[in-house]
Amino acid sequence: MRELMILAIFDLDGTLYSGHIAHGIARHHRVHRVKRLPLYVFMITHIAPWPLCRLGLVSEAVMRELWVRHMGWTVRGWTPEEAAIAFTWIAEHYVQPLVRPDVMARLRDHQAAGHRVIIVSGTLAPLLAEIGHQLGVQETVGTPMVLRAGRYTGACELPVCQGPHKVSRLEACLRRDDDILWTQSYAYADSYTDLPLLERVGHPVAVYPDSRLAAYAVAQGWEIMGGGADRPEV
Predict the structure, then answer these.
(1) CA 37 from centre of chain
(2) Which of 12, 25, 57, 224 has its CA 20 to 30 A from that of 97?
(3) Which domain holds residue 142?
(4) CA nearest 9: which of 186, 208, 207, 194?
(5) 116-124 and 145-148 as β-strands: parallel, antiparallel, unpaired?
(6) pLDDT digits 0-9 by tens, 49-88
(7) What is the DSSP letter of 148?
């Protein structure tokens, strides 16, 4: 008889911690004086269009997908071993100090209850795996990067783990023989663009939500943790 499982799914940026992973990569590259040119190209070309988003001319979902799709530029040319050194530093020196104690306490409650905890994020998959390791979470689903001749090309495998593809990538990582109790499972996220993930489960939780998600959560009667005052800016 197969075991029935309850999932507890956590977004990363703005949910488990109050930062944005692109800022963590930027901090590492500046401190260690590595790959600063591709970093600046990435940051300038992806920050410049945000006013169009605020004016409603480009959707937030499109902007977030572009950020994730091109984040691999910042590690282009590195071997996985070289990148792992940077990822360990980012997880330890950028992510850990910004972890939200209340959300981590909820995560630990799920672990204590025997729920299957998974972090699902657009973050580069090997970086997300290291963050999960440092936070005591074994399973993570992120955006895989393309390797060629043992080095990262700067490209990410499509579709990136954003919006509805957070759900499809998560489901692809679950074994076919897993019996998931979706109606009894939980999802935690901060952005309106995470609605597909939140609506996939029976217990969605808006965590430090943006204004659109907060309004939607109130209308749906969802649980809300925290407020929106310290949401990360991209």
Answers:
(1) 25
(2) 224
(3) 4-225
(4) 186
(5) unpaired
(6) 667 667 666 667 777 777 788 899 999 999 999 999 999 9
(7) E
Domain count along the chain: 1
């310290």: which residue's tokens? 230
Residue 191 CA to residue 184 CA, distance in Å, equals 22
* Rama region for 154: left / alpha / beta (φ>0; ψ in -120 to 50; rest): left
Whether 230 is in a domain gets the answer no
Helical (H) or strand (E) element with 225: strand 223-225
CA nearest to 196, candidates 168, 220, 217 = 168
Alpha carbons 41 and 22: distance in angstroms, whole number: 13
How does DSSP classify residue 221?
T
Is pLDDT at 214 greater than 70 in this prediction?
A: yes
In a domain, 234, yes or no: no
Q: In CATH, what number is assigned to the domain containing residue 39?
A: 3.40.50.1000
56-74 residues labelled b (16+ CB within 10 A) or e (exposed): eeeebbebbbbbbbbbbbb
CA dist., res. 79 & res. 23, Å (int): 21
What pLDDT sits at residue 234? 40
Q: What is the chain's mean pLDDT, rounded?
A: 90
233 assigned to some structural domain? no
- Cβ contacts of 229 within 8 Å, gap of 6 or more: none
Residue 122 to residue 11: CA distance in whole angstroms: 9
Which residue is associated with the tokens 């630990």?
108
